[in-house]
Specification:
single chain, 71 residues, mainly alpha, 1 helix
Length: 71
């Protein structure tokens, strides 16, 4: 009497809809977490009154070739 018989692997020919739905729900959950963290960060930045403003075009000085570091 053999304790273990030869194992056989069963492969599905089509994707299981249940596992496909589960994978989609995980992806939606990850996207939800990403967006929620972004909103929490935005709220914290606004509550701290942190603001980054770009300089006006008139205030921007043109760079020389010697300043850009490519030479």
């Amino acid at each position: 009497m053999m304790l273990f018989e030869a194992f056989k692997i069963l492969y599905a020919k089509s994707v299981d809809q249940r596992s496909q739905t589960f994978e989609r729900s995980l992806a939606v959950g990850k996207e939800y977490i990403k967006q929620t963290r972004g909103l929490i960060l935005r709220a914290a930045i606004q509550a701290s009154q942190i603001a980054v403003r770009l300089p006006r075009r008139e205030d921007i000085q043109p760079m020389d070739a010697s300043q850009d570091g490519t030479e």
